[in-house]
Design a protein that fits this description.
This protein is mostly helical and 248 residues long. The protein is built from 8 helices and 5 strands, in the order ααααααβββββαα. The protein is extended and about 65 Å long.
């Protein structure tokens, strides 16, 4: 069997319609003959692109061909005739009111308590929380303006505006969140004094003890560690958006 033929999964009676990545990328052919496996020995590894990736590639290709048609480089967009299978929507987990309350009560003294409290209360994304500036927080009116986000892109930590106009919004904060942010601001002032000349004035609400932006992955690690310690249902930080927004 060679890379141009249909692949079979172990135990399949019929050929599998999608090439595995070993064949599609030529990985198996590049191996030493003594170390070849997968399709070259009649046993497909079954490592095919997941439906979400296939659909993303299809949409990108269709958009690119659409531009070519608009620019009169092509006469028609052949991708518009294709009907790829839509991937299943991601199933997300959420916390009950009891679990969210338990989590917040357990981390009351944690230095990033305010971050998690605000994220749960107003459905703030991780990038929005880490990119939040003090100038966008009004503790007198009890509102926050979410207009910036902090993300690592291509190895670079970027503090940019949110992706769309719809993402930029002003939301009201529950009173407990306002109180938590007041305590957090006092804590940050203490961190600034302790750091002295090592302090970086980033203007961000949530920072390291030296004032620098928090690495997004570190928030995931912190969140996962707290969940494991407290014993509530394991969810992703992003799933906080889908949990109850009126817990506080």
């Amino acid at each position: 069997m060679n890379g141009s033929e249909d692949c079979r999964r172990p135990g399949d009676a019929q050929p599998h319609s999608t090439k595995c990545q070993c064949c599609a990328q030529g990985w198996d052919a590049k191996r030493l003959e003594s170390k070849r496996r997968c399709c070259s020995v009649g046993k497909c590894c079954g490592q095919v692109p997941n439906p979400a990736r296939v659909h993303h590639v299809f949409r990108t290709l269709r958009a690119a061909l659409g531009v070519a048609v608009a620019e009169e480089v092509l006469t028609r967009n052949v991708a518009s005739f294709a009907k790829p299978t839509r991937p299943r929507r991601h199933r997300f987990d959420t916390w009950s009111v009891a679990e969210a309350t338990t989590f917040l009560a357990a981390i009351r003294e944690h230095r990033l308590y305010a971050l998690f409290a605000v994220a749960i209360a107003v459905g703030m994304r991780r990038g929005e929380a880490l990119g939040l500036r003090w100038e966008d927080v009004d503790l007198l009116d009890g509102t926050v303006r979410m207009a910036m986000q902090l993300q690592r892109v291509a190895g670079e930590l970027r503090h940019d505006e949110t992706k769309t106009d719809d993402s930029t919004r002003v939301v009201a904060l529950p009173r407990p969140c306002v109180q938590a942010l007041r305590r957090h601001r006092a804590q940050q002032a203490a961190d600034r004094m302790a750091a002295g000349d090592r302090w970086t004035d980033s203007g961000l609400v949530f920072t390291t003890r030296k004032g620098t932006p928090i690495e997004p992955r570190n928030i995931n690690r912190t969140f996962d560690g707290l969940i494991a310690k407290i014993g509530v249902t394991r969810i992703r930080f992003h799933d906080l958006r889908h949990s109850c927004a009126t817990l506080l």
